[in-house]
Amino acid sequence: MKSIAHQDRSSRVVGADHRPLRSHPAARQCLEARFEREVDEADPEGLMSPADRVKAVESKRNAYYLRLALKSAESRRRRRRRPTGG
């Protein structure tokens, strides 16, 4: 049987929040502000309804993370193709 201390450590590791999300709220706020600025630039007169603004910000956020995932996948693909030195 595992000790209580070991069980506690295990539960903290497995059940822990995603560390970057927890430890860098300022970075997340900065990114969110960037998406909102981009929507502001697209709608300088403020004619969009609040619901449409929320959708536009979500769209900007999703596009950003999709581009990030694509760059990551391309990088991994290039790394796999690179011959190993030996």
Give the SSE layout.
Blueprint: H1 4-14, H2 19-23, H3 25-42, H4 50-81
Given the helix and strand composition, which structural class is it?
mainly alpha
Mean pLDDT: 82
Overall morphology: elongated
Largest sheet: none
Q: Please, how many helices?
A: 4
Helical content band: over 70%
Structure, described:
It is a single chain. By secondary structure, this protein is mainly alpha-helical. The chain has one domain. It has helices spanning 4-14, 19-23, 25-42, 50-81. The mean pLDDT is 82.
Overview features:
86 residues; single chain; mainly alpha; 0% strand
Question: What is the gist of this entry?
Answer:
By secondary structure, the chain is mainly alpha-helical. 77% of the residues lie in helices and 0% in strands.
